[in-house]
Fold:
Amino acid sequence: MIVAERKPFDEIMEMVASCKRVLVLGCGGCVTVCLTGGERQAEMLASQLRLAAGAKGLAMEVDFDSITRQCDKEFFANLKKDLASYDAVVSIACGVGVQYMGEQFASARILPGMNTQHLAANTAPGVWTEYCHGCGECVLAWTGGICPIARCSKSLVNGACGGTNHGKCEVKAEMDCGWLLIYKKLQETGRLDELRKLRPPRNWRKDRSDGVRRLVLKDMVEEETKS
Amino acid sequence: MSEPISKLQAALAAGQFVVTGEVGPPKGTNVGPVLHEAEEYLKNSVTAVNVTDIQTAVMRAGSMAFSHMLVDRDIEPVYQMVCRDRNRLALQSDLLSAYTLGIRNVLALTGDHTTMGDHKEAKGVYDLDSVGLLQAMSILESGQDMGLDMKGNPNKLDGAPRFFKGCCVTPCTDEIEPQIIKLEKKVEAGAQFVQTQAVYDPAAFEKFMSGIAHLKVPVLVGIVMLKHAGMAKYMNNFVPGVVVPDWIIKKLSEAAKEDRQKVSIDICGQLIREMKHCCQGAHLMTLGWDMCMPSIVQAAGLA
Ligand code: SF4
Structure:
């Protein structure tokens, strides 16, 4: 899932300080699961903004709303509020939601309430850890199911660098060295030969260096055009 | 094997025990003092001098320019290149430039992470890893580059370089096997010599060397000069894969301040003497104490 962290309150307050009417808009997707951008958080942020505006003597009206997913048009009909009637809509979806809402509701001003971070698993209560980088060319088949692109700080492809230290990465003492994890896994499963193979430099075009990426399911597109 | 292209390669091929030194370009344009030290103390006591490449991600003058200045002074450089700051376009271009400037020995390194240095917000590149950089050198030597022309064929170079290609390894890390596997890949990718991370444990080093005997690649054991006990303890705590044993820390802490340099020289000499039989040379990182180099070479019984 995508995880996103709420922006510092002061930053959000500053964005909307000159607004008379503000809507905080939650999303029922990933950010609800990671407990940062759902309906409850929208309600909380709205009341925080109301309080802060009151304390500053600003005449600001703050409402909240939430829909199932801000990245899918299908759910936009369920909006209870009229976005264009607000001076600003603070979306607490991920960056996809913020942009897609902005595109679909061109007369509304959608502002980001979150810093979108990464693709994560819920590794402990309240902890989401990055597992995938969305690199576009999965290598997990030969890395023991552990991603060196996301979980090695340098995204190396041929094994650990000299910074590996008792299983930790040189970048942070509390961070596992992804390549040591890979080595251990391959060793345990008798597949070290995978590590011995020379891996050529990566094709970063599949990552970000080819510009904006798109997933097109041809069959579905053809169906649509026929009907 | 074709003719050696550098003094370093020739000396190793001739079976001499080789000593290399290391200098770091300054943070600023004042290259005079480091050049002076290299001429005064390194030129006549070592075979080649490594020039660090934005070492520990602390911004400073460049490794290629400095290597070239050494060439001009008849000191043979080992041009260090890290993968942190340049993509494959820039790395290959710099390799061609380096060759045209008379640089022959190149050491391929991954490079310390940006967060270890003084520009922590910089974006790390790592387009290639150290194995990929060695592959890049081998490809350039073959007269091609890593790209393709309009028809999808490999590009042809107008004049191909030749390098004596080196790499690094950490012999005393807690997990040896992954280091050895990576070294095997580096050799497969074209590495012709190895300079190691700092080693202070001759027994562990000897064991490591027997583990890589099948690679038949010359290894220069790395030794960082320890200036005082605090530095040794710091390395134990913070430098991955470096273990300074107690006897060295004890020697350093017992030495009077004015004797420290002498003690440090003796330690280096002793380490080299103890490891000489199982490797092909020593890479001494004097960290500014370049004036000690002639005495270290003597203490090691090499002069
Ligand atoms: S220490 Fe491990 S995780 Fe960190 S950069 Fe090196 S190989 Fe990657």
